[in-house]
Amino acid sequence: MKPDPKILRQQIMDLPCAPPAALNERQADYYRLGHRHARHAAAEHVAAEFQRHGENGEIRALKQELASYKAVLRSDSKPRKEGPTREK
Fold it and tell me: Is residue 9 part of a domain?
């Protein structure tokens, strides 16, 4: 069973925020703001991954990986310029 992106996003957004008791009120506000930004960034990341992979995500990811390997192989197979050779 594949995870539902909407449920996963909601679970991320519902993560509780509990600033440490040692923080003063201003620090706690910054802590909550950072927590909010982190939750939103995580939810966006999850949504992007689901969109990128879709139903055939594994196949698409493997094809992309294969294409990058082929690009590396092509760049490695180009003749390299040798430095000047000394004549004896």
Answer: yes
Question: Angle of helix 5-13 relative to helix 25-53, nearest 10 degrees?
Answer: 170
Rounded distance between C-alpha atoms, residue 87 and residue 9, angstroms: 68
Kindly report the backbone phi and psi dihedral angles of residue 79, in degrees, each rounded to the nearest multiple of 5, phi listed first: -65, 135
- pLDDT averaged per 10 residues, the chain (length 88): 76 90 96 92 84 63 68 57 51
pTM of the shown model: 0.54
Q: Is residue 81 part of a domain?
A: no
For CA atoms 44, 50, 53, 57, give the dihedral sign: positive
Residue 84 belongs to some domain of the structure: no
